[in-house]
Amino acid sequence: MGVLSVIVLIHKRFLLGSLLVFCCVTGLAAVLYAGLRPACVPAFAAQGADAVTVVIDPGHGGEDGGAVSPDGVMESQINLAVSHRLSDLLRFAGQRTLLIRTEDVSVHTEGDTMRARKVSDIHHRVEIVNATEGAVLLSIHQNSLPSSRVTHGAQVFWNTGEGAETLAGVVQDALNTAINTGNEKLPRKIPATIYLMNHVTVPAILVECGFLSNSTETARLQEPSYQLKLAAAIATGYLRCLAGEEVP
Ligand SMILES: [Zn+2]
Question: 174: CA distance to ligand 1 center in Å?
Fold first, then answer.
């Protein structure tokens, strides 16, 4: 074997060895990537955080207090407190947010009767959401089930917008971990009767944070530390979803 042949052989061996190492590394990377990569990234996440505005809807407000506990605690004020905290946390994490209301007011634009103003309020909320480019809606509410005063915990509902069901799954998972320990809930599709959620043209979830028909939970829902815990769980779920996570 001449010197040239030896050099060619060494080159061949080196090339084969390099190719083998390259294949192993890329193969491992592919396996790891496939393991980490979500099967389906929601449309809003695929757009990138810069293109998305998280519209936060504190349900009810003003003369429309929403659900009321037996001792007079109104849903609208808890919704507002949780929404402010949620907006602050998401902004802290670099997200763009828009609060539909920042005070205890109804956002109606017309109406002579309370019913007319309520209709105007909900239509106006739909307009705000649909006019916001790249919007994802997080609607914040409190539940009430007077027939079962022990029922408690947070539950998420999704609309038919692309990625909303995935978002609901991850936010529910975050709430189950932070709030619903031993009382885990499944996310559900929003009933057809909820006007806002069925008339916005963007991915939307509605979070029922707790039950005002449960006196223990009502007390908790008024605590700033618990409101922060709720907001942190929702924000975490949103950010996990934005990063591509899915809950089977
Ligand atoms: Zn409500």
Answer: 21
φ, ψ (nearest 5 deg) of residue 96 = -90, 130
CA distance 209 to 220: 11
Pick the CATH number of 3-242 from 2.60.40.1240, 3.30.565.10, 3.40.630.40, 3.40.190.10: 3.40.630.40
| Distance from the alpha carbon of residue 13 to the mean position of ligand 1, in angstroms | 71
Tokens of 117: 């103003």
pTM: 0.83
What is the Å distance from ligand 1's center to 28 Cα?
A: 49
- 161 CA distance to ligand 1 centroid (A)? 20
Pairing of strands 188-189, 135-143: unpaired
The alpha carbon of 81 and the centre of ligand 1 are apart by a number of angstroms equal to 14
pLDDT tens digits for 222-245? 999 999 999 999 999 999 999 999
pLDDT single digits (tens) 79-107: 999 999 999 999 999 999 999 999 999 99
Q: In the chain, where are the structural domains located?
A: 3-242
